[in-house]
């Protein structure tokens, strides 16, 4: 297996797990043979692992065989011990406690970086005193992009990373961290021109605070940009979410009509549709498209707060309920708390009723409450 297979295998398992849950089993990754020219890739991988070493018990001992391969006078001999070390560290990056499920009550942190090869980003949240990964992102640069100046590459990394994590960041305040100090000035240009102006306009849709930090503290995003892994489809990417919405018979008619026009269709047009579609039709003015995906804009009665809720297809409902209620981060809370957590990010027809049914039928919750007295 060559270096491309190495990148692809690692990226696939990272993206697969980040898009799903920290509790599900990781897909097996085939054995990997590394050739001499991949030392640079190995150093980048070790840089990413080192950033999260505090989560990995006996990190130094586990990583020692790989560190030996990067020494200047070392013969590059990929042994069974190296294979075991690589797989152990890779598994640590894509499972708990490094990787965790997003919390609606915590601020997101987005670290971005760019190199001559590509761009990289890590989306995190601070849980307790530790920063835990929500998802990774990296992308190779095309030939025209490689000719950009350093500052333009760094700005490209911000734009692409924010848009990639749109479903987490849109409508929420978050912290953006970069190791490129001049970006703060660039984003505050009064009269930017051309491509910079277009990028700035796209970024104005988001609410973030930008923070500069030293390159020595930016090893997570830096490692992903130095040797970008091949990008694979995220189960929560815009294309996958849109596909699920179009496959949902209740959502599809609304989505298709929204694409054609923002004007609400007449009752005569919607009357033949199913009841759930009619209930979505009643919410027409609060439904909006972003990158071809349908969202609901919810606002408080006094207009002081709002949130963007992804219109969730029924096919994804089980996954969200499982993570929000049954997972380690879910906590098996009651109906109202579970309902509130889901409503922070999602909306679907009969949401409240589905939450009530799920909590009522949860065996763990039932066992905790004990048998009901029949008098």
From TrEMBL:
The protein's enzyme class: transferase
Record keywords: Endonuclease, Hydrolase, Multifunctional enzyme, Nuclease, Nucleotidyltransferase, RNA-directed DNA polymerase, Transferase
Molecular function via GO: endonuclease activity; RNA-directed DNA polymerase activity
Span of domain Reverse transcriptase/retrotransposon-derived protein RNase H-like: 78-175
Keyword Aminoacyl-tRNA synthetase attached: no
Family matches, as InterPro entries: DNA/RNA_pol_sf, Integrase_H2C2, Retrovirus_Pol_polyprotein, Rev_trsase/Diguanyl_cyclase, RT_RNaseH_2
Stretches assigned to the Integrase zinc-binding domain: 314-369
EC id: 2.7.7.49
Keyword Hydrolase: yes
Superkingdom of the organism of origin: Eukaryota
Protein name, as recorded: RNA-directed DNA polymerase
Gene: TY3B-G_606
């Amino acid at each position: 297996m060559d270096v491309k297979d190495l990148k692809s295998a690692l990226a696939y398992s990272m993206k697969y797990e980040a898009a799903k849950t920290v509790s599900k089993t990781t897909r097996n990754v085939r054995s990997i043979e590394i050739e001499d020219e991949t030392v640079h890739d190995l150093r980048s991988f070790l840089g990413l692992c080192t950033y999260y070493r505090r989560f990995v018990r006996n990190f130094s001992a586990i990583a020692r065989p790989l560190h030996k391969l990067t020494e200047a006078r070392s013969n590059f001999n990929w042994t069974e011990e190296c294979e075991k070390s690589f797989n152990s560290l890779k598994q640590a990056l894509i499972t708990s406690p490094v990787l965790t499920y997003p919390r609606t009550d915590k601020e997101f942190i987005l670290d971005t970086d760019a190199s001559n090869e590509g761009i990289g980003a890590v989306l995190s949240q601070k849980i307790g005193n530790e920063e835990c990964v929500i998802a990774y992102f990296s992308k190779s640069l095309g030939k025209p992009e490689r000719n950009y100046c350093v500052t333009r590459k760094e700005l490209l990394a911000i734009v692409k990373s924010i848009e990639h994590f749109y479903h987490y960041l849109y409508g929420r305040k978050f912290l953006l961290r970069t190791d490129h100090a001049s970006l703060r000035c660039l984003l505050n240009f009064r009269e930017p021109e051309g491509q910079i102006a277009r990028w700035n306009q796209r970024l104005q849709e988001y609410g973030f605070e930008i923070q500069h930090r030293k390159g020595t503290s930016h090893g997570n995003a830096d490692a992903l940009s130095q040797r970008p892994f091949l990008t694979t489809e995220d189960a929560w990417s815009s294309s996958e979410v849109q596909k699920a919405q179009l496959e949902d018979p209740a959502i599809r008619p609304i989505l298709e009509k929204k694409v054609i026009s923002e004007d609400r269709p007449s009752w005569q047009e919607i009357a033949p549709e199913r009841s759930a579609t009619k209930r979505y039709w009643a919410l027409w003015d609060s439904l909006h498209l972003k990158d071809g995906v349908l969202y609901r804009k919810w606002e408080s009665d006094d207009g002081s707060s709002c949130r963007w809720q992804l219109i969730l297809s029924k096919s994804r409902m089980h996954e969200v309920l499982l993570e929000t209620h049954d997972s380690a981060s879910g906590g098996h809370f009651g109906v109202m708390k579970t309902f509130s957590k889901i409503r922070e990010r999602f909306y679907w027809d009969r949401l409240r009723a589905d939450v009530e049914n799920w909590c009522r039928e949860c065996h763990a919750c039932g066992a905790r409450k004990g048998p009901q007295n029949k008098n």
